[in-house]
Amino acid sequence: MIWITLSILFAVLLVLLILFLFAIRPNKPRAEMKKYLFPVRYAHRGLHDEEKAENSLSAYRAAVERGFGIEFDVRLSKDGELVVFHDDDLKRLCGVDKNVVDLTKEELQRLHLSGTDDVIPTLQEVLSLVDGKVPLLVEIKDMPRHGEVAEKTVEALKAYRGDFIVESFNPLYIAKVKKLMPEVCRGVLSMNFSHEKNFKAFFPALQLLLLNFRAKPDFIAYEASGWKSFSLNACRKLFHTASLCWVPRSQQEEQDAYRHGFDAVIFENYIPEE
């Protein structure tokens, strides 16, 4: 009797393993992804400091001058325009107790970032500034009831002639990118979501990369402390998927990221060594 029970248990575990591997299976490795990995390093929200606000044209200009790739965030304004801003709300960077989506592009561009002369840029302004000089890592922010942000971002990027890759915490956005712009390398962002209220209901699937079968990512961008993630390492070792680390904040943390198997870094608050 015990052998029958063990056989059933083994069969169930085998089926679960097969389903898990199917769910996390990413895209097949593509040669074009290699040019977006080390020695490329991505400045997180631009090369910002006390004088240059994050996600500002000044921070992007500084990154271009130093030859660093640039990671930045795209979301929609009230009137459906693509603007570059990380947070859902404007309080931290602009001192305004409203959400980005509550203001039009014109209203947003009257606000100054972190007390500097810079204002919130549009996606088109960022693309015009960079103009293919360095690779871009474009994060599409998850916006409830505003799924068109992925479609509009793709449409804007189609006209851009520089090198870029696209990522999002929302695998369904990346699935849209796959459908609308299959030639572009795409990735999913992940982390430990257990303390993130916006993702609490969905964090097990997102954290375990269980929607990879829909998104078919070419890379995984994972938080630095998550390097032991079983799903991340399964993608790396079984499917040879590229991985990016966010966000090392020192040269030592960058070296740790490479030691932990990451292929590139999205850095902040220091200048990486040549």
CATH architecture group name: Alpha-Beta Barrel
The proportion of residues in beta strands is 15-25%
| Helix and strand element order | HEHEEHHHEHEHEHHEHEHE
Strand order, biggest sheet? Answer: 1-2-4-5-6-7-8-9
Query: Given the helix and strand composition, which structural class is it?
Result: alpha/beta
Count of the separate structural domains: 1
Helix content: 25-40%
Under CATH, the topology can be stated as TIM Barrel
| Structure annotation, total helices | 11
CATH homologous superfamily classification: Phosphatidylinositol (PI) phosphodiesterase
Radius of gyration: 20 Å
Low-confidence stretches: none
Q: What is the arithmetic mean of pLDDT? A: 94
